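pinning this so it doesn't scroll away 📌
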Amino acid sequence: MLLLQVNNSSANVSLVLFFGTIGMLALTIGLIVFIIFHQRKVIRYQMTLQKMEQEQQKMLLNASIRLQEEERQRIAADLHDDAGPLLATARLYLNENLVNLDKTTQLQSIYNAKQIIDDTIQLIRNISHSLMPPTLKNFGLESAVNDQFQKISSSGIINASCRFHDYKERLQTDNELIVFRVIQELINNILKHSNSSFIHLTQNTNGNKFYIRMHHDGKGITQADFERMNKSSAGLGLKNIQSRLKVLHGRIFFEKDNSQTYYKVTIELNRDDNQ
């Protein structure tokens, strides 16, 4: 009787061990399968993010290329349509028959040619200034932005003001030009779309961070709107802003003020990358 109880007890222990082992194996296999599927899901998610990032980079690159191409076409058109005819006209006054004319006519032809050449020089100077504003080149970003805002305010259409709080050390010249073009694009968007009564720009630094902030009281966009438009075919100007700031490793933020009365745009740069 005792031997039978011992055998039954051993059988029960073996049965428990058997089912316990089976359970552990099933749990281990289930855990391995879960890890494999989870890793595959993570990889698919990472590949999707990478693809989205590549598509956005491609859109930004296309926007940058399109901007450069438009700039080249504008310069080519200005030279072809304006400078070309002016120089051709000056050439008419300075033709080979000039030596056969009387002195008074010669002097008048030379004077007319000089006036046309002066006009051509001024035209080329204007084209050059549109590429690199002389105020920006000679006096820096603060003076160029102040000059831009004074011109806007003098129009009487909108009240424009700006204030630089801490700009003792200039950014690199090329980087100043990029920031200035971004500010111009933002101003252009505000003037075209916001119906604002004022624009106010401030500049300050915090540690190695350089900030430009613009406020206006018209219609604006939020960061979600900006990111959505960057992923679509619309908003070429905003894509140009993004592509320019990417060169500087900078960021831009669009938001509505807590008071809900005006919109704010913040440009953030790392000074260490732009000195």
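📌 and the second one:
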Amino acid sequence: MEIRDLQYFCLTAELEHVTKAADKLGVAQPFLTKIIGQLENEVGVPLFDNIGRKIKLNHYGEVVYTHAKKILTEIDNLRNDIDESLERHTRTIKIYTNIELHYPEIVMEYQRFKPDFQVAITNASREEIFDALKAGDADFGLCSPPLSDDSGKGIKTEVIFCERCCAMLPPEHPLLNGKTISFDDVIGEAMVTTSKESALRLNLDQLMEKYNYHPQIVCESNDINLLIRAVKSGLGFAILPRSVMFSIPSIRKYCVESAYPDTIGNVGLSFSTLQSDIRDSSKFIEFVKQFIKNYNDNVYCRE
């Protein structure tokens, strides 16, 4: 008895007609009749009664049909489970980002949450993130400033975090005793910062333009630790996300809050609504939102 035989038997029972069942299965009617005959020989009893031009399950046939459907359902469940397991083992979530922070923690936490998934991170500009989402080369974009929704190209963005910034000053800087700092306080001073395509710099450039501040940039690097060392060595001051201050408590004594309430940068999680093969996209989005909420509640908002 083969799985195929049970499939043929169940369809014939449901249609109550051998010829119609054979047509639907794409086999010859004599072949289907032979398969049903073999099944009846194996169970030792006839399974159908002839009623005119139709056939109908008899008492024995009803019993076999009930068990056959259960077996076929279990076989389908088994195949689905195997397919899902194979997909998990080969599934790589591809994220393009221009964010210097957060994503390492997100990746590590997600892989603890979903150990069968891999997460690949690619650093990219905002334009590259948008193009990768549009082309299907990226599953998600983690970007600041957030990408705009584009219904025509199927790009949707959810703002998941609002990052505030502070100034990190060299040791012994006279403004370290102040509560807040403004651009007027550091006119003509050397500044170290990230590259122009980075999230921090994009938001910072907008802010400096708004307040008509022209920085004296002496060093550019996307390595936050390098910028911190540069400030500590006295090379210049830096504008850093406050999350850096929380992540590295030793630098808090060098940090002063910004005098501007709009020294912020929104972080957006973007994805394509046209990529139908991303089965777990909504789950990943909810995971990231919950991760950021936990971070906000347990770290960022606790001073």
